[in-house]
Amino acid sequence: MCFVFFVFFVFNLQLPNKSLLLAACAACIGGTFQYGYNISVINAPTMYVQNFMNQTWRERYQIDVSQEFLTLLWSTIVSMFTLGGFIGVTIGGTLSVKLGRKGTLLTNNVFALVAALLMGLSYPTGLFELLIIGRLFTGINAGIAICVQPLYLGEIAPTAFRGAMGMGTSIFITGGILTGQVVGLKEILGREEYWPILLATTCIPAFLQLLILPWFPESPRYLLIDKGDTEGCKKALKQLHGIADCDAEWEDIEKEKNNLKGVKAKKPWELLADRSARWQLLTIILLNAAQQLNGINAIYFYADYIFKQAGIPNDKISYVTVGTGACECITALTCGMLIECLGRKVLITGGYTLMSICCILFTLTLSFQVFNITNMYVSICCFFLCQGGVTNILTTELFTQTTRPAAYMIAGSVNWFSFFFIGLVFPFIVIGLQQYCFLVFLAICSLVVIYIFLVVPETKNKTFLEIHNEFQPSSSRKASSVDGAGTTLLSGPL
């Protein structure tokens, strides 16, 4: 929180309402922070969990488990997180309509608490199967969070701060990854006797959110547009934006409600068939696929190899990995402050351009047969600099209230499927291409840069309806009756 205030001061930016920042933190701590935390925390106890499964198998059947089957069991534990995430996003949008954005986030903590209980009890009960079920529940928790939390942040934020607030998703994901890496160090909970406690710590963010988030209101847009609660919406706006700044947001929400009168929330398949949203939908599908296929997750999967090839001793790799997590966290924080200055398009194209350059540098560095100290630093710097584009906020901005939940379900499904796909395919890419494996990601990042430059408009300081109209053909915009602000919704197919 102090860092946020500091950066706003350095860049001479107007500070958002304190209640708004606290509401965002409350939503994120039990949301995408959990997602990042559960991605990284599973890495530290890998060997200890495998020893536990082997010991349990021996006690049950008086024989050691084969190495191949042990690898399969461990892969199942890890991959259950991805399967759970896919399940989570498929139900997250529906829950956000029925329970509300805030209600869904609070309910979602049940999955985290059950997961913590199951994984914590796996060792004392001698049931490694509880780890598989527990990881499935953590994945469901993460899938719902990655779907609903950006939705909540985008809807509670005023137009001027929507980009910075939306970046809270990335900031807390990287914060969760860093926290999981730090807690997994041997000096904290990374020793063999502590691994059940380490995996059970996923309950802590859940408890924090259950304690803090109830003090903050539901999304004002959800209250007025979905529920028709005028008084609730005004009260929420006053708490989140302050009495002096809530009138403009109220007018914007009321205008969107009037344009959406009689239009029901769309299902994912209905959105897929809506020709008026085809370019928005294609954009978020491509960006969410690219977010996983741009090489950054492959770098994480391949981190040990990269650092070993760079000449870093084995006993120091875990600390270097923490350094990468810290660098990524700082980068996300900085981008969160810059997004309202530079705009979304500049940051996304810049991020993928940087990824393209890093893929080239990785290829050149890994191609040397003898690794010296210079190559080691090049590898580390490339790893530090590899940051993905600003994607999550665009899913909020490119859609209106009735299509936004379905858009998040589609985007999240693509994201999790791509996550699963790259984890499955990357080892074979490495075997086939060896040191040239990052050229695949170079091609993907370059294509994304071209698409964003040609197709995606700048959304900074524009209302949701103005952004919607940006994607419509010029002939349709001219034919439509547009008010002074240019915010008439074109809801029918073109």
Automatic annotation (TrEMBL):
Endpoints of the signal sequence: 1-19
Protein location: Cell membrane, Sarcolemma; Cell membrane
InterPro entries (alphabetical): GLUT, MFS_dom, MFS_sugar_transport-like, MFS_trans_sf, Sugar/inositol_transpt, Sugar_transporter_CS
Gene3D superfamilies noted in UniProt: MFS general substrate transporter like domains
Catalyzed reactions: D-fructose(out) = D-fructose(in)
Bilayer-crossing regions: 72-93, 105-124, 130-152, 164-183, 195-216, 346-370, 376-394, 406-430, 436-456
Chain intervals for the UniProt region annotation (Disordered): 475-494
GO terms for cellular component: sarcolemma
SUPFAM superfamilies from the UniProt entry: MFS general substrate transporter
Keyword Ligase carried by entry: no
Start and end residues of each Major facilitator superfamily (MFS) profile domain: 24-460
Topology relative to the membrane: Multi-pass membrane protein
GO biological process, one term: D-glucose import
UniProt keyword Endoplasmic reticulum, yes or no: no
Keywords: Cell membrane, Membrane, Signal, Sugar transport, Transmembrane, Transmembrane helix, Transport
PROSITE patterns linked to this entry: MFS (PS50850), SUGAR_TRANSPORT_2 (PS00217)
A single GO molecular function term of this UniProt record: fructose transmembrane transporter activity
NCBIfam families: SP
Family statement: Belongs to the major facilitator superfamily. Sugar transporter (TC 2.A.1.1) family. Glucose transporter subfamily.
PANTHER family cross-referenced by the UniProt entry: MAJOR FACILITATOR SUPERFAMILY (MFS) PROFILE DOMAIN-CONTAINING PROTEIN (PTHR23503:SF1), SOLUTE CARRIER FAMILY 2 (PTHR23503)
Protein name per the record: Solute carrier family 2, facilitated glucose transporter member 5
Organism expressing this protein natively: Anabas testudineus
Species lineage: Eukaryota, Metazoa, Chordata, Craniata, Vertebrata
